Amino acid sequence: MPSALPLPDAIDAISLDLDDTLWPVMPTLVEAERTMHRWLQANAPRTAERSTVDRIREIRQRVAAGNAGRAHDMAWLRRESLRMALLESGDDPAHADAAFDVFYAARQQVTLYQDVLAALARWRDRYRLVVVTNGNADVDRIGIGHFFSARVASHELGVGKPDPRIFHEACAQIGVAPSRTLHVGDDLALDVAGARAAGLHAAWLRRPDIHGSGDHPEPGFADLHALDRALRATQAP
Q1: All domains of the chain in start order, with CATH
Q2: Torsion on CA atoms 24, 78, 88, 47, rounded to nearest 10
Q3: What is the value of pTM for the model shown?
């Protein structure tokens, strides 16, 4: 199984997770939910009145339980949960698509971590970069799509991390072997263990605002600058 960081000259590509790796996702999701709720208040008021966090979560759990094959597709789960919430509230379930579109547009309004743009610019000149995500962020709408040679998302592929197939698909799309690819992500199980099981190298991005500063079972990097310094230390000039 590959080591946490590659040996000198051992990688040609870096695959990157998005949420909580390149930006903190919870503030974005909270604001997107608020934006959608305001739309529901104007267009489906009975649903808006009943749409507590607990109720929406319960509906989403029911939808996921009844559609195990779609559990990797958060966009579909959200849309279907909205449809069910509208129907149960007595509002027109056809509003689900428009309500989701409002949420989805707001979901792209992320705030990048300060290290992201500089690191991606450096890495683009040295490696092939590819997105590997279980989420539904759109790097083109966010404004960073030009850094990446390819994008692989679970809702399009049909499987998500930690399934080896999503990592292998990313490597295939950029034409780089798994053994010469480093995956970077914030989740120890989905990103680190999943990538290593698929034959990639892996680095854990341990953002202090997400993971805190205590002891952890896996060495990690507080930001992309720290990871870049470690990579440059192991790479031959």
Answers
A1: 13-24+112-234 (3.40.50.1000), 26-107 (1.20.120.1600)
A2: 40
A3: 0.89
